[in-house]
């Protein structure tokens, strides 16, 4: 269940800022976190020439990475340290060099120390869906997990 209110939004924003500051992978790939709220996050990325595979389309790993980033930021909006315990993706349409993608992650349910999040990846210019991702999260208690 999502929490709401100004305190929850402030926690979500602070969590995203701290996480992004330490996220070299997202920064190097040009991923921008454009929106966060409790249980939600939006990430954007442009597909560069170095992200295209031998078929002339974006390597699925980059699309997965963008979706996984939106998922990670969405499930880390409550001030806890949260990691993925599993994820899957369905590729719906080919993505090409110079396409700008937007991934929007939404919390579906949190139970105990676990959660389920859905991420839709779309083309920024048309809104066409290119992938659907589902991630399962787990809140860490300490470094031993």
Summarize the structure.
The protein is of the alpha+beta class and 145 residues long. 26% of the residues lie in helices and 39% in strands. It contains three helices and six strands.
Strand and helix layout:
Blueprint: H1 6-21, H2 24-28, E1 32-37, E2 40-46, H3 60-75, E3 82-91, E4 100-111, E5 114-123, E6 129-139
Antiparallel strand pairs: 1-2, 2-4, 3-6, 4-5, 5-6
Main sheet: strands, sense, barrel: 6 strands, antiparallel
**Would you identify the regions where 5 or more consecutive residues have pLDDT less than 50?**
none
* CATH class term: Alpha Beta
DSSP strand content: 35-45%
Q: Architecture, CATH level 2?
A: Roll
CATH topology label: Thiol Ester Dehydrase, Chain A
Q: For this entry, what is the oligomeric state of its chains?
A: single chain
- Rounded to the nearest angstrom, the radius of gyration is 15 Å
What is the terminal-to-terminal distance?
A: 24 Å
According to DSSP, the number of beta strands is 6
Major beta sheet, strand line-up: 1-2-4-5-6-3
Helix share of residues? 25-40%
How do the SSEs run, as a string of H and E? HHEEHEEEE
Structure description:
This protein is α+β, with helices and mostly antiparallel strands and 145 residues long. The chain has one domain (6-139): Thiol Ester Dehydrase, Chain A (Roll). Helices cover 26% and strands 39% of the residues. It is built from three helices and six strands. It has helices at 6-21, 24-28, 60-75, and strands at residues 32-37, 40-46, 82-91, 100-111, 114-123, 129-139. A six-stranded antiparallel β-sheet has the order 1-2-4-5-6-3. The protein is globular and about 45 Å long. The two termini are 24 Å apart. The model has no long low-confidence stretch (mean pLDDT 94).
